[in-house]
């Protein structure tokens, strides 16, 4: 399962086919802040033993999200190095909303 942790606007502009979107950071004006409900939202969509591939745009947010998820007991949460940019560069399937 692919978890896209980018903003909903980024997700709607294009994402890996079949991805679930739960933003790790939320935009508040010009600032970005951590989504306080991130782990609750993840828990509502995934089981702790699910294999979850986590991606963002370039790999920074997904690395933080993976660390938080692993600390919360999601032992099979894996960060995608390079994020969506790398996904596109490798010609993997995408969907535009």
Automatic annotation (TrEMBL):
<protein>
    <recommendedName>
        <fullName>Rhodanese domain-containing protein</fullName>
    </recommendedName>
</protein>
<dbReference type="InterPro" id="IPR052367">
    <property type="entry name" value="Thiosulfate_ST/Rhodanese-like"/>
</dbReference>
<dbReference type="InterPro" id="IPR036873">
    <property type="entry name" value="Rhodanese-like_dom_sf"/>
</dbReference>
<dbReference type="Pfam" id="PF00581">
    <property type="entry name" value="Rhodanese"/>
</dbReference>
<feature type="domain" description="Rhodanese">
    <location>
        <begin position="3"/>
        <end position="96"/>
    </location>
</feature>
<dbReference type="InterPro" id="IPR001763">
    <property type="entry name" value="Rhodanese-like_dom"/>
</dbReference>
